[in-house]
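Quick one:
INPUT:
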């Protein structure tokens, strides 16, 4: 029940975000004097509505988004009533149309930024100095966290019956101990410790460590395992020794900020998120085969795209595991992605309308400079084949991601 509540809460958060997106279009259009005739949450049959002024507001039966109707978005629209010609959207200056069409994405960015600022002040944002590369982790002090067992073969899996116990645990080492030497060879970093342990033959070895500021020594029976060379996870495996520990980073994973400092931290985090979002969008075509593999019974790649269905399922897992920080970070990431995606210069996305408006403006300026007559507005009807192609490809991709999220979803927690 908690999981289902989380799914519903996240789906509701997405619906509110999309509704605010459309409200951004509506409010900016009204502010400039454009005529907005309809604003609805959802699609399909109307459940409830009322009219205030010239705009009808209401709720539709299928809660999968929302829309607002701005009169005369293109010169080819036939929804302009007599007397409203000057209020048709396409007649307004390009900068006003740009603001109206980008207001939806700006709303998503605002939701993400406000949520990030609240997180920065309350729970803290990821520490930019926390090591996020293998070399970074190797430079950390050799402070250990005991593993429950040693996996002999080279496999990333949970412990199973029959796996040998952690040698460090059997020797009474504890979480938080800092290793200083192995068989008399000094180590200062996690990378040093890995090098020395792997170069030591399996069997008895002395381990010097510091606990609560006091040095001590333990005799450990190092386990024999199969591992690839350090720094080359796909290399050929060989027999090496293992201590049965993991790194316990001393660098805090999150940093909490004051109200003023949180603005700068939020801006920095958003900049990094923008770069990651663009890289993720560039990789989408490469991930289609992986999605198809997930749908047809293969293992789901955690780096594949997810739909709103998958995001809602992850939100449900977060609530089920009381991981509200994960819930809200998912909300931030999704809003930021939707904001960026909607600005792509493709019809029928908002970015496509913006691109056409500025293309018209640039073309008019160029023709005026070379002494030719203004060619006028772009004929949207001629662009319909491209628009339909974008809708078809986008629809197929959405169907693929939704199917993968239903039959083979990505999970963050063990359930």
């Amino acid at each position: 029940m908690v999981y289902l509540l989380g799914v519903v809460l996240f789906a509701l958060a997405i619906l509110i975000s999309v509704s605010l997106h459309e409200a951004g279009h509506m409010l900016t259009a009204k502010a400039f004097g454009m005529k907005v005739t309809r604003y609805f949450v959802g699609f399909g049959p109307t459940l409830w509505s009322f009219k205030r002024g010239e705009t009808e507001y209401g709720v539709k039966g299928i809660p999968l988004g929302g829309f607002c109707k701005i009169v005369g978005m293109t010169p080819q629209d036939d929804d302009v009533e007599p007397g409203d010609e000057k209020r048709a959207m396409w007649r307004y200056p390009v900068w006003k149309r740009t603001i109206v069409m980008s207001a939806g994405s700006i709303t998503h960015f605002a939701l993400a930024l406000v949520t990030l600022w609240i997180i920065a002040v309350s729970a803290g944002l990821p520490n930019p100095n926390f090591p996020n590369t293998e070399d970074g982790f190797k430079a950390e002090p050799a402070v250990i966290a005991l593993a429950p067992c040693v996996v002999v073969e080279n496999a990333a899996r949970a412990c199973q019956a029959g796996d040998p116990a952690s040698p460090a645990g059997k020797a009474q080492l504890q979480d938080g101990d800092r290793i200083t030497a192995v068989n008399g060879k000094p180590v200062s970093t996690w990378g040093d410790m890995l090098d020395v342990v792997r170069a030591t033959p399996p069997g008895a070895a002395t381990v010097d460590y510091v606990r609560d500021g006091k040095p001590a020594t333990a005799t450990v029976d190092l386990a024999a395992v199969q591992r690839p060379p350090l720094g080359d996870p796909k290399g050929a495996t060989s027999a090496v020794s293992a201590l049965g520990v993991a790194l316990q980073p001393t660098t805090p994973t999150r940093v909490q900020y004051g109200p003023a400092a949180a603005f700068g931290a939020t801006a920095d985090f958003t900049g990094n998120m923008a770069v990651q979002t663009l890289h993720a969008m560039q990789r989408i075509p490469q991930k289609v085969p992986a999605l198809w593999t997930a749908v047809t019974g293969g293992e789901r790649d955690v780096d594949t795209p997810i739909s709103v269905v998958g995001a809602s399922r992850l939100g449900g897992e977060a609530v089920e595991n009381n991981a509200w920080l994960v819930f809200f970070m998912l909300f931030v990431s999704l809003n930021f992605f939707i904001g960026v995606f909607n600005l792509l210069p493709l019809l029928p996305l908002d970015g496509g309308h913006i691109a056409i408006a500025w293309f018209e403006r640039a073309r008019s300026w160029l023709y005026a400079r070379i002494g030719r007559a203004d060619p006028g507005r772009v004929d949207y009807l001629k662009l319909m084949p491209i628009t339909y192609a974008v809708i078809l490809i986008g629809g197929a991709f959405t169907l693929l991601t939704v199917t993968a999220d239903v039959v083979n979803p990505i999970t963050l927690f063990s359930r």
